[in-house]
## 1
Amino acid sequence: MKSIVYCRGDSKDARELEGEIRPYLTGKGVEVVTVTSMDDLSTLPSGAADGSFILSLGGDGTFLRAARLSTQLGMPVLGINLGSLGFLTDVEENEVYASLDAVLAHTYAVEHRLVLEARIVREGQEILNTTAINEILVVRDLTGKILTFEVFIGGVRAGQITADGIMVCTPSGSTGYSLSAGGPILDPTVEALVLTALAPHNFTSRPLVISAGSEITLKVKPSRDKAAFMRDGEHIGDIHSFDTVCVKRHPQDVAIIRLREKNFYKVLGAKFHWGG
């Protein structure tokens, strides 16, 4: 059995916990590899054995990066919360060792959540291909002008939107940035995506709930300014005039380890005070 422990290298709490977890797992015959950055992927084991898993030590941001790693390797991920909100993570710090024992005993359930795949195409060439757990965002620079997009859904032109940006999110991401931008909250079991315009010029450009089987294509109209391309809150590239951004469901869902029944609506009330 193998375990990949993912934590931020600049987090003192996470590194201390990793230092405690490592000997605990190795003492039970688990091969442990620690990753503190996506640049460390060359250190990963060559293949996932039965029962292998990823541990995320940190907050929801760390969990999102670990979850993307999960889709790459086909290994389930368990989130140990060292952050403030912990909406995505399942285990609190005082539950760590009991939770590890449960994982080693295979007494857990797996929850599957859909993942986004996004591509940037420039002058007919794909220049970037990435995945996201929460959202893909194309947004103007702070000093840039408002953007105009042609929007296609399932190959059909849906319209033109002028806005600060456009976001495509998963049900998992519907409680994140999309919610702050006025998007709806989706039950994580719903097979759908949400398209949300940020500060749209036209008040009729309301969020759309779209079948998860549809590909969303955004064609960026001419502008003197570049735009930022963001994945799960990280700026990973720039968008130029006439670029095309294609977003669809990735074929590999993320597998999240659940050690107890986690009712989405109870968590929504506890963490977000919905209906309170």
Note: DSSP finds five helices and 19 strands in the chain.
## 2
Amino acid sequence: MDIREVLSGGDLRSIGHVDAVVAYVGNDPDRFSELMTGLTDDRPVVRMRSADAMEKVTRRHPKLLRAHQASLFEQLQIATQQEVRWHLAQLMPRMTWTEEEASGIVHVLTDWIDTETSAIVIVNALQAMFDLSAVHPRFHDELKALLESQLETGSPAVKSRSKKLLQKL
């Protein structure tokens, strides 16, 4: 199976054959590596669907991310496509990060929260920061301030998630 070709076609409003790719990749590290190459594909639809499939595969098999941690950290910093960003935010808490790396992730996520127009990106960035702060408590105060700010200025979806996360802090 050529994963990139299976994920191509159509537009950004559909997930295409993501579920078939998720089933094909399973817990296979080589197939997951092939899936990872879709993040740098020239076609936005392939990048989006690759990120979606990665997120779905790693719900059950988060260890597959380990071999690609450095690459995903790099992708987090350079991704501009909102559909890729929201999935990258979901992936970050599934890996183990040093304090310095976590700080870099929080910096990027905070930037997205401040500048992104996609409510999905903002919600997933807030959730990722919440999850990371459970392991790296030094981000707790920064997260609390962001959540309180989003309660005032965020979209309805962002306000709802902010309220839920504040209740859990």
Note: Residues 19 and 35 are 13 Å apart (CA to CA).
